[in-house]
Amino acid sequence: LILRIKKQIREQLSPRHVPAFILPIADIPYTINGKKIETIVKRIISGEAITPSETIANPE
C-alpha cells in the first residue's frame, strides 16, 4: 500500500513531493470544530508527550 501511495504521488505530482516515510494510523486528532490538530500529530511522530485537551474531539 505504501509503495502504491508513493507511486501515485510521484506520477501525479512529482518525485520531489514523495514523502520520506508514510505511517499507517488509526485516526487523526481533530478539534471539536472539525479541524486537524497538526501540532499533536507532529508531537506523536517526534515521540513527545501529549497533554490531554478538552478541545480534542477524538482524544483516544
Automatic annotation (TrEMBL):
InterPro entries: AMP-bd_C_sf. Gene3D superfamilies: 3.30.300.30. SUPFAM superfamilies: Acetyl-CoA synthetase-like. GO terms for molecular function: acetoacetate-CoA ligase activity. PANTHER family: ACETOACETYL-COA SYNTHETASE. This is 18454_t:CDS:1. It comes from Acaulospora morrowiae.
